[in-house]
Amino acid sequence: MSHAGILVVGNEILDGIVLDTNSQWIIKQLKTLNFDVKETMTVRDETAEISRAINRLKEDGCAMVFTTGGLGPTHDDLTLKGVAEAFELPLELSEPALGIVRRQYKTLHEKDIVDTDEITDSRRKMAILPKGSLPLDNQVGGAPGVLLTQEDLKIFCLPGVPRELKWIFENEIKPLIGAAANGVFTEKIIVLPLRDESMLAPIIDEVMERYRDIYIKSLVKPYGVEGIRLWLSGRGDDMKDLKDRLEEAEGYLRELTDNRLS
What residues have CB less than 8 Å from 169, skipping those under 6 apart? Predict the structure, then answer.
């Protein structure tokens, strides 16, 4: 199974101005493709921090890294500079990327969303990529996404604007990584009529001992609230067999819970 890492870039996230929903969305997409997210990191808009985080994710065994944020036209959009520094690559103008920027600002101008379609230095900046990178089309905003491959590691750089990120992932990234996905994943959330997680712990241990391919995690509510939610998930090669195993594990959970309550 391939491990993925997510790197969120932006002072606005760490200063509590903007809530990061992008990571959660990416994780859900990767999960359905049976890719395991090993870790997520959030760093400030600083080149050295971005570079250090990329290398950390690489060293931790991630085969894919998804960055979000820092691809725009302003001085603090430094993600691509940080990625280039991580691999000691020069930055250079990408004509295909510049073509995307030109098309998008022409379209945005025609829709009266921006005042001019002129390719200013700030807009041109969004087409300056680490050497060897491929631009990923963005038909929602101005900044192209970026794919850089370094040996066995793929780095996908995405804008921080959720609509743009989602469009690029669905239309550019998913077709690329979907073919490499192996196996299947399924999950469900159930509620058991218990109020104390400590009573549930040995039940979970017993079920996971019997069903080693099923992962169970309690999603605990405060004491006194009726019922405890459980998240059951599993990975395998055949979806029908995996769902059958999940149903069996759920049945055994409920059986042990009923015995504990009786």
Answer: 26, 29, 158
Region of 10 (left: φ > 0; alpha: ψ -120 to 50; beta: rest) is left
Residue 244, burial from CB neighbour count under 10 angstroms (0-12, 13-18, 19+): exposed
DSSP state of 152: T
CATH 2.60.40.1530 fits 184-261, yes or no: no
Structure tokens at 51: 């570079």
pTM: 0.82
Find the farthest-apart pair of alpha carbons in the chain and give their distance in angstroms, rounded: 74
Alpha carbon distance 79, 100 (integer Å):
19
Q: Does the pLDDT at position 146 exceed 90?
A: yes
Q: Which residues pair with 149 in a beta bridge?
A: 154
* Cα–Cα distance for residue pair 212/222, rounded to 1 Å: 29
Query: Edge-to-edge strand order for the sheet containing 153-158?
Result: 36-43, 3-9, 64-68, 153-158, 145-150, 134-136
CATH architecture of structural domain 3-178: 3-Layer(aba) Sandwich (3.40)
Residue with tokens 């491990």: 3
pLDDT in tens, 24-67: 999 999 988 888 899 999 999 999 999 999 999 999 999 999 99
Domain range list for the chain: 3-178, 184-261
Gyration radius from the chain CA atoms: 22
What's the one-letter identity of residue 152?
D
Query: Which residues sit opposite 234 in a β-bridge?
Result: 186, 214
Q: How far apart are CA 137 and CA 150, in angstroms?
A: 20
